[in-house]
Fold:
Amino acid sequence: MRVLLTGGAGYIGSHTALCLLNAGYEVVALDNLSNASPEALRRVEELTGKKAPLIVGDCADEKTLTAVFEEYKIDAVIHFAGLKAVGESVRKPLDYYQNNLDATMALCRVMPKFNCSILVFSSSATVYGTYPEMPLREDCPTGCTNPYGWTKWISERILTDVAAADETRSFVLLRYFNPIGAHESGRIGEDPTGIPNNLMPYICQVASGKLDHLNVFGDDYPTRDGTGERDYIHVMDLAEGHLAALKYAESHHGAEVFNLGTGEAYSVLDIVHAFEKANDLTIPYQVTPRRPGDIAVCYADPEKAANGLKWRAKRDLTTMCRDAWNWQKNNPKGYEK
Ligand code: WQD
Structure:
């Protein structure tokens, strides 16, 4: 089975490529390299001993997509590609709506022309917005608080309606919680552009000395220690969740949503302390005011994926912290795009 990974050179895409190749799938990546390096897939080939061809292009462009399907027999698509910075989406909403939604619709139009009916979509827990009742289940109300989140929610809506109109389609919509960590080899990992927005890559750059200290965004939330709590999931567990989603799609039609989380909530200070203990390091930090738009707590009810996908996250927080640091310390400048 050959799988097209849009955004396949990215953080989650490259880890999923490695997982699929090791499971015997063939992989083709389409990436515009706006937030990725071709080096990631070169290293995936090094780690697996298998080819992972990369086509550089825009998956929102139907001509580009058609050319890929004409060159390769594609049996399924995993759609990772998209702009994904929450703050940037508030500043540039049109870029986000146009890029992210055009890509979803282009795939929906091109795939059936080549009898390709399986699509796994990279969605996000951000679609739950500020819904307060935890843990989050797939049938909880959704309501986004930023254009990035709305592009994920609207893409889910598009895919759900397309699958309802065409019963040959099999769409699996995966709502990621907070992916962190890296493959155990330390050869592939998260390589954010500029100063990281997200907690773990920021901590890693403090640990490497690239940044002076961590700013803890608020310690006055209604949580155990006052700092924000999230459901952190190892990126390799997330990659394995995509393998499970592909297998599910092969025997199910329609569109189905699954949370990919662990069901465990850890606070910012939990992460800091776990990182320090796992790696025998000290992470200096100072508490600053809350980050606008942040919520106090967000974590998954993972049972639907456990039952439906026969998948559950298995790597613990120590492993997430150790693997994150192993990547950072061996690649202080990332892939050096
Ligand atoms: C985690 C916690 C912060 C940085 C984001 C996106 C979401 C998804 C995952 C794509 C929060 C705190 C962070 C820092 C801090 N991405 N923090 N200092 O905001 O839960 O989710 O990434 O789908 O869409 O919104 O992740 O890592 O930014 O924050 O104190 O320098 O760490 O307040 O409590 P978040 P995050």
User: Anything to note?
Assistant: Residues 147-165 form the longest helix (19 residues).
